[in-house]
Design goal:
The protein has 239 residues and is an alpha/beta fold. It has 5 helices and 12 strands. It starts with a strand and ends with a strand.
Length: 239
């Protein structure tokens, strides 16, 4: 039964810091409402607003709290050139890249209203992407011990990662999310050891790379939105 509503915003092209500030503010707002509601009778409680943000970032590398700075292969001089930004942030995971042609998604959900299970939350994010890949004839899968979505390839082929996931929770309210390579410039991943994975049999890919043509970003967002709503069982309010 669908009972929750989620506010959706497509931020389009936005600087990483601006998007981080926005999602952090929305998370703080949601947590504050939870605290105020704690001792109120049900009739007086404030509505808890959930959010889903989609965007594309300027070229930027982000390092999770468990990551190693050595996995960024650019020198300080190269970073200071202004071609790329770099942030050390509070999500889980190691280093990844965000840039044009990639859909970065930030769900700010109070999991008390969905399910209080971090493992299930991450697996559901992966499932959203796997279902979306099916729209393009691509079979996505999980690999044991590696968070994110990979392409299902024949045995012996290089494993190709198409979506990275890294999250942070506070009082069961989520922050950060996923980075889904659609028409992403894959050469920018050569400046890092993506997600800290140094295996020679693993690399990154995109929908464009897999099917040999650029894909309409708006169309992919539509599929993602629908799959989010189906798997988390909520209704959208577009903002």
């Amino acid at each position: 039964m669908i009972t929750e509503k989620v506010y959706f915003r497509d931020l389009r092209a936005i600087a990483y810091q601006e998007a981080w500030d926005l999602q952090s503010a929305l998370q703080a707002e949601l947590i504050a409402r939870k605290r105020r509601n704690r001792n109120l009778p049900e009739s007086d409680r404030e509505t808890l607003h959930h959010y889903l943000l989609f965007c594309e970032h300027n070229p930027v590398y982000t390092l999770g709290k468990s990551g190693a700075k050595e996995h960024l292969l650019l020198s300080e001089d190269q970073l200071e050139s202004g071609a790329y930004e770099y942030f050390k942030i509070n999500r889980g995971g190691d280093i990844t890249y965000h840039g044009p042609g990639q859909i970065t998604g930030y769900p700010i959900f109070d999991l008390d209203d969905f399910f209080t299970d971090v493992h299930r939350y991450v697996r559901t994010l992966e499932e959203v992407v796997i279902f979306t890949l099916e729209e393009y004839g691509i079979v996505g899968k999980r690999i044991k011990d590696y968070t994110g979505v990979w392409i299902d390839v024949p045995e012996g082929e290089i494993q190709r990662k198409i979506c990275a996931i890294g999250v942070h929770l506070s009082r069961w309210v989520t922050l950060h999310g996923f980075a889904f390579n659609v028409n992403t410039r894959l050469e920018d991943f050569k400046n890092i050891i993506p997600c800290g994975i140094q295996d020679d049999d693993k690399t990154v890919t995109s929908i464009e790379k897999e099917i040999g043509r650029k894909v309409d970003m708006k169309e992919v967002k539509t599929h993602l939105k629908r799959n989010f709503a189906a798997l988390f069982q909520y209704e959208y309010i577009d903002q």
